[in-house]
TrEMBL record:
Domain Galactosyltransferase C-terminal: 153-229
Keyword Transferase: yes
Record localization: Golgi apparatus membrane
Gene symbol of the encoding locus: Dvir\GJ24343
GO cellular component, one term: Golgi membrane
EC number: 2.4.1.133
Xref: InterPro entries: Galactosyl_T, Galactosyl_T_C, Galactosyl_T_N, Nucleotide-diphossugar_trans
Protein name: Beta-1,4-galactosyltransferase 7
Organism, as annotated: Drosophila virilis
Boundaries of every Galactosyltransferase N-terminal domain copy: 60-146
Amino acid sequence: MKMVNISTINWLFVCGLSFCLGGIAVLSFMPLSSDCICPLKNPLSRVNAEELTQTKTFTKSAHKMAVLVPFRDRFEELLQFVPHLTQFLRRQGVEHHIFVLNQVDRYRFNRASLINVGFHFTSEVYDYIAMHDVDLLPLNKDLLYEYPSSLGPLHIAGPKLHPKYHYDNFVGGILLVRREHFKQMNGMSNQYWGWGLEDDEFFVRIRDAGLQVTRPQNIKTGINDTFSHIHNRHHRKRDTQKCFNQKEMTRKRDHSTGLNNVNYKILKVHDLLIDGVNVTILNILLDCDANKTPWCDCSGTAAAASVVQT
């Protein structure tokens, strides 16, 4: 593992497979990209290591939470997310660690499969997970990342609180799930390549397992001031393309894929310090059976390669 402290970065850019400090490539965990990320100016909720130490209120907890962050090419958001969430959770005394699930293959982004991989990696140590978007920062201190009840998952970013999504069955953004419940539901579907709908399918899994979603109570803030949504839709457009028979297939409950058959390799594990906070980066190579889900690559290249191999 490689340890890099980036708390004193004067300038930063990400190009290709490495990011550079003072012109020297020191870490390779980012997927290839045509983007270069310029230095951040006044990053939201940035705190240094001393401030984090001062806010640390850990007591010995009976539970440990793995924060699973599906990720690809969102490094500037990660720089804001890690210190903000760490400070937020330390004030609550939540014992946790952040795992960045970095998809490095060339298929379309698959949030659900990455979460399945992250669960496999962490479940022996952590007894609940937070499925957490990197661009959603909690602001209200009454949002408690506590161990979910026996009823089922705890949805922190409820439809009356999330800045963008307000339908009743919404369970995206930030969802806390007990280890035994995630296993009971066979995790998430692996069929969702591209953006959207994987959390809606997961809601059906929750219901089919006889569980129910609970949400924070007595929150006085609303959709405009409970979270900061730092996603830049102009800089990073959602991959909403639908190709082959994707639209038809992803509207159905998936009974065939999940935690038990996610196909992946973890190429490397990195330790990274961001403003004094240690996070773990998993470089994850997902595999796609293009005969079953050809929409993992709308160009058709993956499907053609799969036919040749068979």
